[in-house]
Amino acid sequence: MVKIIAIDGPSGAGKGVVSRMLAKNLGFHYLDSGVLYRLLGLVAVRHKIDTKSNRNLTRLAENMDVRFEAMTNGDNRVFLEGEDVTHELRTEQTAALASQVAASSQVRKALLLRQRRFAKAPGLIADGRDMGTVVFPNAILKIYLTASIEERAQRRYKQLLEKGEDVSLRALEEQVRSRDERDMSRDVSPLVVAADAVELDTSKLSVQEVLDTVLNIAILRGLM
Predict the structure, then answer these.
(1) Do the strands 76-80 and 66-70 form a parallel or antiparallel pair, or are they unpaired?
(2) pLDDT score of 70 more than 80
(3) How many CB atoms lie within 10 A of CB 16?
(4) Residue 80, domain extent
(5) Which of 25, 65, 75, 139 is 20 to 30 A from residue 169's alpha carbon, by CA?
(6) Three-state SS string across 106-161, please?
(7) Residue 34: predicted pLDDT
(8) Which residues pair with 146 in a beta bridge?
(9) 66, 161 in Cβ contact below 8 A?
(10) Alpha-carbon gap, residue 108 to 6, rounded angstroms
(11) pLDDT of res. 174
(12) Rounded mean pLDDT of 70-91?
């Protein structure tokens, strides 16, 4: 049986960086489920497909030409139809598209099997919003990371400034708030804390502190 640790939570809570570090520390595979939804949103725009057209989106989800290439720093380069779209996937516009397409039950069903294929020995760290509730409900450990809206917006603000982008902190706070509402209120696979998940507020914690906490939880449960 493949060991799976599911890490869920809202945007900006630290799931991505913590999950990548955890995967590297344990020697596990890593799934960033959000990338699949971002890719779908991106390819829909490129092919001029209405993001509200469930039928067309489902067809795209089932046939996306996607390739992941591992890098030495633990990240993945992502290729869509042969083109490296790694950086484009991290824009706020693409994130908004991902949230839109993720609301479709047909789309989520189409991507479900694709996500489960990432579960390979020796183990998998699955990062997303419904990893522990829907995709991998039998995960050996479920962690739910959260943080205040203000802190999450501030983190994104710093990231974008470092990239040289001109952004508004107030606008980012509103985007975070809107995305939370959309993710938590959708009819299918809403963002919720799994009943057996450990909830951890990262607002005042460093990445290393969050990582150490998760590792300690795994050790205390005899998972390592």
Answers:
(1) antiparallel
(2) no
(3) 20
(4) 3-220
(5) 75
(6) HHHHHHHHHHHCCCCCCEEEEEECCHHHHHCCCCCEEEEEECCHHHHHHHHHHHHH
(7) 87
(8) 201
(9) no
(10) 17
(11) 94
(12) 82
Q: Which two tokens stand for residue 142?
A: 């479920």
Decide: 200 and 210 in contact? Cβ < 8 Å. Answer: yes
Provide, for the chain, the percentages of residues in helix, strand and coil under a 3-state DSSP scheme, each rounded to the nearest 5.
50, 15, 35
Question: Between 75 and 202, where is the model more confident?
Answer: 202
- Measured distance CA(216)–CA(224) in Å, rounded: 9
This prediction's pTM: 0.85
DSSP letter assigned to residue 45: H
Q: What single DSSP character describes residue 14?
A: S
Structure tokens at 152: 């999450």
| pLDDT above 70 (res 74) | no
**For position 168, what pLDDT does the model report?**
92
From residue 47, give the alpha-carbon distance in Å to each of 65, 79, 89, 148.
13, 16, 16, 36
CATH code (residue 98) = 3.40.50.300
Mean pLDDT across the chain, nearest whole number?
Answer: 90
Residue 21: strand pairing partners: none
Give CA angle at 224 (207, 24), nearest 5°: 45
Question: DSSP state, 61?
Answer: H
Distances (CA, A) of 135 to 67, 120, 184, 194: 21, 14, 17, 12
Instruction: Tell me the β-bridge partners of 30.
Output: 125
Residue-wise burial string across 40-49, b where 16 or more C-beta atoms lie within 10 A, e elsewhere: bbbbbeeeeb
